[in-house]
Amino acid sequence: MRGYLGIDVGSVSTNVVILDEQDEMLANLYIRTNGQPIKAIQAGMELIQDKLPSNLEIRGVGTTGSGRQLASAIVGADVVKNEITAHAVAALNMVPGVRTILEIGGQDSKIIVLRDGVVTDFAMNSVCAAGTGSFLDQQASRLTIPIEEFGDYALNSKAPVRIAGRCTVFAESDMIHKQQMGHNLEDIIRGLSEALVRNYLNNVGKGKEILEPVVFQGGVAANKGIKAAFEDALGLPVQIPKYFNVMGAVGAALLAKEYVGEHRPTKFKGFAVTRDKFTGKSFTCNSCSNGCEIIEISNKQAIVGRWGGRCPRWEVS
Fold first, then answer.
1. Which is nearest to 74 in space by CA: 105, 40, 103?
2. How far is CA 105 from the centre of its chain?
3. How far apart are CA 45 and CA 31, in angstroms?
4. 308: which residues sit within 8 A by CB, 6+ positions away?
5. Which residues neighbour 191 within 8 Å (Cβ) at sequence distance 6 or greater?
6. Which domains does the chain have, with CATH numbers?
7. What is the pLDDT of residue 184?
8. pLDDT given for residue 134 in this prediction
9. Quick one: pLDDT at residue 281?
């Protein structure tokens, strides 16, 4: 059996998937990064190996996410792509003809506009946490509600209250104020869902032509209340793919399969990398006025990867 490995390393989660030759899912994994991406990558590789048939051969590897260069240095990637490309490729594979992708992750959010299968526009918001998964986790914890049930509360609302959603600080203080006024929890949570969607559309989606089919992906797509709020605000149906929470990794695996094809040998180092000891450090290059910060990853004194420079001076072959 042939398989294609995709790894998406983000600030909140690390996602690993393996697809077969027919682009069907063989195994997928969603784990917390917990501020330790190297350990998360190795743990993900070890866990997903246990789910695979013994006769599986990895023929290609792709990495994406904010830690894509790090993941590539550790596992040996054939393709390293940004999140926009990976999410677009995955959405097109699962929802042919998709024209708008709404993606909300743990720490950032993005919108991708496609026309005739080509990305024509996109926007990202990595500055404000309002509306991201980490903020919703925080509010669910404060209200002592399991995050898995947060969306159900919103759907049970009869009279949503308006919550200020421009900023996490204002949103939280407004929620507390509404609680003190005696509003039902369901109405407050529905109001929060609507506020976060307003914030997303006014900032990330500002000036973008949102046409159906519309796909909603990322970890926050599990929240039924946010999905319902998007449909109300847009007046359009919103689809959630089966593997909505690992779409970046799916896209990376598909891109690796396309790149490797039949004639390129993979650079994959094997699952034994789970036992290797990797260390990371950074330094400033003073060779010119750019002053690039170079990130360096080593394994047993051997440098396996460097990135961050504007020229190839520090690249590792």
1. 40
2. 5
3. 11
4. 282, 292, 293, 294, 295, 314
5. 157, 160, 161, 162, 163, 178
6. 2-87+248-274 (3.30.420.40), 96-240 (3.30.420.40), 279-314 (no CATH)
7. 85
8. 76
9. 87
State the residue for tokens 């407004």.
Answer: 174
254 in Cβ contact with 278 (< 8 Å): no
pLDDT number for residue 128:
63
Residue type at position 62 = G
Pick from 62, 56, 63: nearest CA to 21: 56
279 has which bridge partners?
298
Q: What pLDDT score was predicted for residue 317?
A: 60
What is the full DSSP assignment across 274-294? GGS-EEEEEEE--SSTT-PEE
Distance CA 101, CA 246 (A): 14
pLDDT at 10: 87
Mean pLDDT by 10 residues, the chain (317 residues): 93 92 94 90 93 91 93 94 95 95 86 95 75 77 82 85 74 80 85 86 89 93 90 95 95 95 86 88 91 88 85 80
Where do we find the tokens 């995955």? 90
Long-range contacts of 293-298 (CB under 8 A, 24+ apart): 295/69, 295/70, 297/70, 297/73, 297/74
Taking the C-alpha atoms of residue 128 and residue 69, their distance in angstroms, rounded to an integer, is 24
Which residues are within 8 A (CB) of 172 and not within 5 positions of it... i.e. 6 or more apart?
138, 139, 142
CB 58 within 8 A of CB 266: yes
Q: Is there a contact between 4 and 58 (Cβ–Cβ < 8 Å)?
A: yes
Residue 89 to residues 61, 115, 198, 208, Cα–Cα distance (Å): 15, 13, 27, 20
Kindly give the pairing relationship between strand 100-104 and strand 214-217: parallel
Instruction: List Cα–Cα distances, 44 to 74, 87, 269, in angstroms.
Output: 12, 20, 15
pLDDT of residue 48: 94
